[in-house]
Every structure is written in structure tokens, then in C-alpha cells.
Amino acid sequence: MFSNIYRTHKSLIKFRKFPTFSLKIHTCSSTIEFSEDKKVSRNFNKYANFTPVLFFSSSVSSQNPNLDPNFVSSNEEEEEIQKDGYEGLNNPFDQTSSTPHFSDSESESQSESELENNDYSEVLDLFDVKNSKGDSFKEVKVEIRQPLVKEVCRLIQLRPSWNPKLERELRQLLRTLKPPEVCAVLRSQADVRIALSFFYWADRQWRYRHTHEVHYAMLEVLSKTKLCKDSKRVLRLMARRGIERRPEAYGYVMNSYSRGGKLRSAMRVLNMMQKAGCGPDLSICNTAIHVLVMANRLEKALRFLDRMQRVGIAPNVVSYNCLIKGYCDVYRVEDALQLIDEMCCMEPQCHPDKISYYTVMGFLCKGKRIKEVKQVLEKMGKDANLLPDQVTYNHFIHMLSKHGHADEALEFLHESQEKGFRIDKVGYSAVVHSFCQQGNLDKAKEIVNEMFSKGCIPDVVTYTAVVNGYCRIGKVDQAKKMLQNMYKHGCRPNTVSYTALLNGLCRIGNSSEAREMMMSEEDWWTPNAITYSVLMHGFRREGKLAEACRLVQEMVKKGFFPTPAEINLLIQSICRDKKASDAKIFLEDCLSNGCPVNAINFTTVIHGFCREGDLEAALSLLDDMYLSNRHPDVVTYTTMIDALAKRGRLEEATGLLNKMLHKGLVPTPVTYRTVIHRYCEKGKVDVLMKLLEKMLARQEFTTTYNQVIEKLCSFGNLDEAYKLLGKVLRTASRNDANTCIVLMESYLNKDEPLSAYKVACRMFDRNLIPDLSLCKKVGKRLRLKGKTKEAEKLLIRFVERGLLSPQLEND
């Protein structure tokens, strides 16, 4: 066997293209190496399994710093990248392509209470901060407008029409790119998944290997998204390649986890750092504090800050700003202000900045505590020597306007002007919009006139806010005049302006005029998806459903698609007119045109057929859902079960319910109430009990048997209700007592006081106290029936528990 390998080695040496050749055989104990000078080193276990790995290199590759003859560290890694890469040449940058799946040593299936029980601050004690890794590398930024970068981005954007020629061009360009240029390509992609696809595709190319700068750039891009699993895979790939992982790499992964809402996994990144021997720095500690604050674990964040200082990591103003936000999130504004006061006495790097005060003032604005906002603003200048500037006033003008405090925002605007700051049209527009939202159009017009007087010409945003305000209060004629004034002042209305006007026309029931206005659109504005949706809902509210459906068809032809919620509203309106067949036709048209139709839309049409009594059409549409790959949900099944059972087709309803449970769907409380009502109505209690056992095995519902007994009582089936009383009395809760009272009242209404007496006795046996007034009625009925002994025993039960005095009993 080894002679064959050696002969293969000699034949491969003949290729002048690869002047250097080495063959490595990995065994359990050591390595056999065959080299060109025929020196053979043997020290192996002859019984060990081996896998030959060929490495080719050339003198050209050794001169390129981007290439490494040891590019593949193991067969396993290469196979993973090759297997999970983008196979084929038709579309290697397809977004649906998979990415490498590296095994995780930490399980992601730990308890949800882990973050509650562990604050991860103890991990800091395991690090040696003095021996932690140094500063991060200095990366060279490359502009996206660089020719090579632009050409690579252009080829990537051609991925829908990919072919081998384009891939060959991209492969040639890739070999000429330097690491900063590759980083620029990754950052320039609008879709992060495309950047990730290019990252893995380039990593598979011959004579190319990503440098550490590229890996860090990829992590930085992923840190701004929720693709946390992909971030962790890139980090593990760096570990396999032997690339130094600095704290910022782990910080990128932690940011990605926090954006994805996986706060527990974000904190476990600290454990990964500790196992890798990478010491934390201030940035990742600040990220950890932010994650704890986002998880509403403020006390743990405070302990983490204390542990940081103990291990020698000095916090800065960012650390304290995270805690200030945490205090505000739990409505502890006083503690936040106290922390700001303490920051003023700390080191210079911990002095509060404007963000510290902005955070508190923003929370006060949400709570409509405007006086306190002004006090904090004064405190910012006195204590921290931070004078309000134009940015400060603009910030609070927008914040107050956003939360509906138009008068206070206007006061800040005038105050800023008195101090010499110039407010631009953006600030004015925010105040105008706030007054329009309140319906105070006169004040909004005054501010617009004030803008003219101060040389701040209103723009299309300002005018559109006023137009929308007039339309909100039904003054569409005033809105039209405002559009004409826009033309007079040289400001052309845009799509948003006309959409606001069309919305006002539809609100007053004049959708036809809105339709004509949209048909006669000007050159400088074109209807968008929102414009069509506004008009469609206008026709729907007026009952002009045919026009609404035609508008949807026109909307689709223009390249705009209604949302599933909009489709559902229109289907509901059609079904209310008892035209479920028309709703089905409309639904099929939406499917054929590529509109986003979901299971809820199908369920609405099915419900329409059920209301009309056409169950065969409803069952047929249920089958069509499977053909169109829209799987029915529990609401769909519940609707059909209710309709079938209502018509007496209990066998089909039972089969459909079993099918729903077999598919793993969890019954809801509505499902329980529907099944209980219909089966009790038909008197099929035995079948109902078997179904309930299966449903309870899938999803627990505590008041199941209570509802069954109460429903049986409403239908007069008291004997079956009494048989189920034992299932209710097992828990002896307040709901059970109410159910027993319903059963006793039903027996009294049926003139069976002795049965009511038996129910009361069973309640006493389970330490449940029946209603005293009801039991007195039972006692009177028992005496009339000649059951004086039972009546006395019932009242004695109350006397024994101290709920009734003996004198009242004798009375």
C-alpha cells in the first residue's frame, strides 16, 4: 500500500506546475510524510487507520500573504465547507442555500430560567485581565466606490442569471482583491444573507483564503442582524483556522444574540471567552450589562458592574448609561437621577454626558411629566456643566411632539429661538404634525404662517401634515385648498400628500371621486401600495365590493400586492353578503397572481360557506388548502367541526377532530367550548368523554368538566351531569363550587330537591361550602316533599362549621 502511495508521489512530481509536493498520512499516533527529497519519516502504528490528505502549493502562492499552504486544517473541515457550500454554477448566491453547520459544544436547550439563576458575573473572576490579549488590529477602510469593489458587487447582483462565465470572472477578480477590498464587498451588500453567501463561496475557491480582517468584517456585519447562529459559526470557523479571537469578535456575536432576543445565549458568550482564554475588555462588559438590562435583570447588571471593578476593568460613561436606561425601564427614575449625581463625583471618563440626561428626560416625556423634564434640563447645566445646544432642543421638540405634547414642544421651540438657536423646517414640521394629530388645525396654520415670517419656508412634509389633519376631521375641501396653496408656493405635492387626500375622501364616503383623482394622476406622483389599499378599504366600507376586487387586480398588475390582512378584510365583507362563492373566486385569483395568501384567508372563506350551510364546498376548500401548501390551523378545524356537529354530522366531526390531534395541533379554549357545546346538545356524552381524554392529553384545560356539567344542565341532561360530578370535585376549587351550585339550581328548577341535597352533601365532604341561601331553598323544598330529616341534616352541616347559629336553625 505504501509503495503505491510512493509511486503516486513520483508521478505527481513530474507536473512542473506544482514544484513542491508533500503527502501527509494522519494516524492515531503520528504522521508519515513523503517529500520530494525522498526522505521518509516513519513512526506509526501499523494497525491505525489513516486518511491521506494532499496539499499542493507553488512558489507563487508562498509569496501571496492571502494564501496559506495549510489552508485545510483537517478533512472534516474541508468536507463541511464543500458540502454546505453553494453547489453548482447556476445560482451560487441563492439566498436559500445553506451555510456550514458547525457543532456547538454548548447546548442551546438549557432552561429558560438560567439567566434568572446565573448573572455570569462570576466568570470575570476566572479571567486574567493583566494577561488578556492586547488592542485590536487596525483595519484599513476601503470605499465602496473603488473600481474592483464595484465590479465584484455588480457580478454578485447578477446572481438570478448566474452562469459559469460570470462565476469565472468573479473568481478571477477575487484573486486580485486585497483583504480590505473583500471587507468592503461584504459591507456593501444590502442583504446580509448575500454577504454571508459570498463569504462562504469565496472561502471555497482554489488559491484563496480569508484573512483575519475578513472574518472580523463578516462578524461585524452579522452583529447588526438577528443571524446569531451564523455569527457563532463564523467564530467557530476562526477557532478551527487558528485565527486569534479578540474580545471584539465575541462582542459581535453577543450583539447578534441580543438583537435576536436570545439574551441567555448572549450571556453564555462570556463562558466561550473564558474557555478560549480570551480576557474581556470594557466593550464586551458594556455589552453584557446592556444584555442584562434588556432582559430586565437590573440587579444582576449592577452586580456585574461591581465585579468588573473588582477584577480591574474600570467602567465608563457607556456602562452607567446602560444602567440609567435599566432604571428608567423599571420606572425607577429617582434612582436613575441619583446615579447621575454619583457619576458627577467619579473619574472624568464616568462623568454623565448628554445621553445620560436624554435617557431620563425621554422617559419623563412618555409619562407626561413635563415640569420634571425642565428641572432635569436645568440640572444638566448646573451639575454637569452641559449647556443645551441646538441638538438638545431639536431632540426634545421631536420627542414632545411624538408623544402628543404639542404645546410644550412649541414652548421649547420658542425658548430655543430666544437663546439664539435656529430651528429648521424639520422641527417646525414635527410641531405642526403634533397639532394636526390633536385636531387643532388653527394652531397648525399659525405655525405655518410663523415659518413664513421667519424665513423658514415649509416643505412638502409640513404641508402634507396639514392636509392629513384636515382630512382627519372631515374637512376635505380645506385639504384641497391646502394642496392648491402648495402649488402657489412652489411646492409640489407628492404621493404621500395625495394619499392623505384620497384617504380623507374615502373617510367621508366619496371613494368614487378618490378613484377619479387617482386615475388622473400627475406626472410627479404615482400611486403606491398604500394608495391602492386606502382606496380599496374605502370601496369596502361603502359596500362596493366588486370595485374593490377590480382595484386589487389593478394593484397586482402595477406590481403591488395586498397584505393577507387586507385580503382577509375584503373576504369577510364578501362573506357577510352571503357570497362565499364569490369570495372563493377572489381568493383563487389572489393565489394565481402571487398574492401572499395564508391559512387565515382560507379559514374565512370556509367560515362563510359554513354560515350559508354549504358544508360540501367548505370541505372541498379544506382539501384545496393542502394542494396549495396552506396547512389548516386549529381555527380552521374548529370552524369545520362546529359546522358539521351543528348539522348533526357527528361522525365526520369526530374524524376531523382526530385528524387535527394526529397532526399535532393543540386545541384552544374555543375548541373545547365548541366540542362540548355541540356534543352535549346532541346528547353524545360518551363520545364526548373519549374525545376530551384525547384533547386533554394534548393540551391541559382545567375547567373542561366544569363546562361539560354546566352545558348538560343547560340542556336538561342532569343525570349525565351528576355522573361527572366526581371529576369536578377532585380539585375542590372555587370553579368547582360554582359548577355544583349550577347543578343544584337545575335540580330545584326540575323540582328534585333530594338530588340537590345529595350534591350539597358531596360538597361538604370535599370541604366546599355551598351557598347558604340556596341550601335554605333546598331545605324548604325538602320539607314540602316530607323529607324533614334531610333538611335538618343540611342545616346542621352549616351549624357545625359555624356558618349558622342554632337559633336561626330553629327558626
Automatic annotation (TrEMBL):
Annotated PPR repeat ranges: 246-280, 281-315, 316-346, 389-423, 424-458, 459-493, 528-562, 598-632, 633-667, 668-698
Q: Which UniProt keywords apply?
A: Repeat
Domain of life of the source: Eukaryota
Protein name as catalogued: Pentacotripeptide-repeat region of PRORP domain-containing protein
The keyword RNA-binding is annotated on this UniProt entry: no
Which GO CC terms are listed, alphabetically? mitochondrion
Spans of biased composition, class Acidic residues?
A: 105-117
GO biological process terms on file:
mitochondrion organization; RNA processing
Disordered, as annotated region: 61-117
Q: Does the keyword DNA damage apply?
A: no
UniProt lists compositionally biased (Polar residues) regions at 61-74, 92-102
Molecular function in Gene Ontology: mRNA binding
PROSITE patterns per the UniProt record, alphabetical: PPR (PS51375)
